[in-house]
Amino acid sequence: MKLRVKGISENQPIPETFAFGVYDEEDHMKFGPNRNPEMQWSDAPEHTRSFAVIMFDPDVPADADDVNQEGKTVSEDLERVDFFHWLLVDIPADVHQIPEASDSDGVIPKGKPTGAGHVGIRGVNDFTNFLAGNPDMAGTYAGYDGPCPPWNDERIHHYHFEVHALDVASLGLTGEFDGRAVREAMSGHVLDSARVTGTYTLNPDLR
Q1: Where would a tag sit more exposed on the chain, N or C end, judged by fewer CB atoms within 10 A?
Q2: CA 183, 6, 198, 35 torsion: positive or negative?
Q3: pLDDT interval class at 182 (50, 70, 90)
Q4: What phi, psi does 166 have (nearest 5°)?
Q5: From the CB of residue 150, how many other CB atoms can be counted at a distance below 10 Å?
Q6: Is 90 exceeded by the pLDDT of residue 207?
């Protein structure tokens, strides 16, 4: 399969247009445009019955104690885990494009609903857990929400945009399913995949 993410080149910085958080000189971070990028894919296997889209960041600190704390840094050597930013499943086999801003256009405090999106079914991204303790932002974040790495992280973060061709029309996922549930449901059903990786940082020393 082939995948094109419009505006994002392999291993190059992701434009702020697609970011949840952008650099701010006074406050370190402010909300960004948070538009989902356009995705186009081709050359899917003949027996594809649906597609799934996943975007995740594998560089998120496993220990968040020092994240975004004045006078502290998040060490590059700290253990890292996957953070899911975008989950769409049950995309019909005749769909090969997701238009820009069709699944997100701006930061929505308290999130966006699960269920049917512009195409496919939205899963819950990990901003749901990350913002759970913030009374102004806590809620269920479904669909796309873009990069917003810790502004004091010594590591540049990588964002993997993936499309998977599946041999089933539906993964049977409903409600507030997360990225781990998507990966488990896809297991044994992936015919082919494609990936584009972009980078992003809010650390002024790395920009």
Answers
A1: C
A2: negative
A3: very high
A4: -120, 155
A5: 25
A6: no
Residue 51: pLDDT above 90?
A: yes
The SS3 assignment for 180 reads: helix
User: How is residue 47 written in tokens?
Assistant: 């027996």
Q: How many C-beta atoms lie closer than 10 Å to residue 138's C-beta?
A: 17
Query: Strand 50-61 vs strand 157-166: parallel, antiparallel, or unpaired?
Result: antiparallel
End-to-end CA distance of the chain: 32
121 CB-near residues (< 8 Å, 6+ apart): 88, 89, 90, 114, 115, 173, 174
SS3 96: coil
Q: Could you report the per-residue pLDDT of 76-134, keeping only the tens digit for each?
A: 999 999 999 999 999 999 999 999 999 999 999 999 999 998 899 999 999 999 999 99
- Please, is 107 exposed, middle or buried when counting C-beta atoms within 10 Å of its C-beta (0-12, 13-18, 19+)? buried
Is 56 exposed, middle or buried (CB count within 10 Å of its CB: 0-12, 13-18, 19+)? buried
